[in-house]
Write a structure and sequence with these properties.
Radius of gyration: 18 Å
Largest sheet: 14 strands, antiparallel
Shape: globular
Number of domains: 1
Order of helices and strands: HEHEHEHEEEEEEEEEEE
């Protein structure tokens, strides 16, 4: 085991110690999400996710979307008929849109963000938050790959985003609409890692101007928010552990002329860590 392997193994051990045992085949099925079988994540996890779902992948779909139908989120806080038509189209046909991005870190968190990105993000090609604005100055390339079950229904959408300038992976995540017990319909996002994942559950709502708001607030284990889940070492029991982490996110996706824009804020407890801004434009 080299130094990097030891670092990754110790990180998984930390989450096993600080997390709680979970039963992904029982009461905690809401935490059952794709993982990676190797350290350098990129997008190889998609093949395993397709095999596990039973239907494989639908490749080169020019109209693929993160969520096939946003009506799947309808509930007390969300009515798809109130949503701006282009915002809905972006989520249902994400592959038909291109993205540009900007980032601004709060000064106290910039050194820590740079360290985490250097130690983990770039090396693992996953969750590599841009720490220098010029990193994303040439834009972001994205690929959407539906993951299908045995009946051909989309159960996840893999969304892989890379820096256009270098081809490095920024984020490689699995997206779906699901029910979080006791909290209704949510957007569920999982970022596979070796032997586990980072997951975020976001509550949807619609602003009066038709903008989509996705929110993860503070709350107990089982509420919308961010989680880290890890498998136990082979032969150990219980099989999985998970911990809720004090990271909170808010996305606001809205129309701006002929384009869409997203304001993305990430907090650690009550402190604002980083702001990201995306501009999405429909491909010709």
């Amino acid at each position: 085991m080299n130094g990097w392997d030891a670092l990754d193994a110790s990180t998984r051990t930390f989450w096993r110690v600080t997390g709680r045992p979970v039963d992904l085949a029982g009461v905690h099925t809401w935490l059952d999400a794709p993982t990676s079988d190797r350290g350098r994540v990129e997008d190889a996890w998609l093949l395993e996710a397709g095999a596990r779902a039973g239907g494989g992948l639908r490749l080169d779909d020019p109209a693929a979307g993160l969520l096939p139908d946003l009506a799947a989120l309808d509930g007390p806080t969300f009515d798809v008929t109130r949503l701006d038509a282009d915002v809905r189209d972006f989520y249902e046909h994400t592959a038909q849109w291109r993205m540009d991005a900007w980032s601004q870190w709060s000064a106290p968190f910039l050194p820590g963000g740079a360290l985490i990105t250097a130690l983990f993000g770039r090396r693992l090609q996953q969750l590599a938050l841009p720490v220098r604005p010029l990193e994303v100055s040439r834009g972001i390339d994205s690929t959407v790959v539906p993951v299908l079950d045995a009946d051909g229904r989309q159960v996840w959408a893999g969304w892989v985003r890379r820096l256009r300038s270098t081809g490095d992976h920024l984020f490689s995540g699995a997206y779906r609409a699901t029910t979080l017990p006791g909290h209704g319909r949510v957007v569920h996002v999982a970022f596979p890692l070796q032997g586990g994942n980072v997951q975020v559950f976001l509550t949807p709502s619609v602003r009066p101007d038709g903008a989509l708001v996705l929110d993860s607030r503070r709350g107990p284990f089982g509420a919308p928010g961010a989680y880290v889940a890890v498998r136990s070492e082979p032969g150990a029991a219980p099989n999985h552990h998970a911990a809720r982490v004090p990271i909170h996110e808010r996305f606001v996706i809205y129309r701006d002329g002929d384009a869409l824009r997203t304001d993305h804020h990430l907090w650690l407890r009550r402190a604002l860590v980083v702001r990201l801004h995306y501009r999405m434009e429909r491909l010709a």
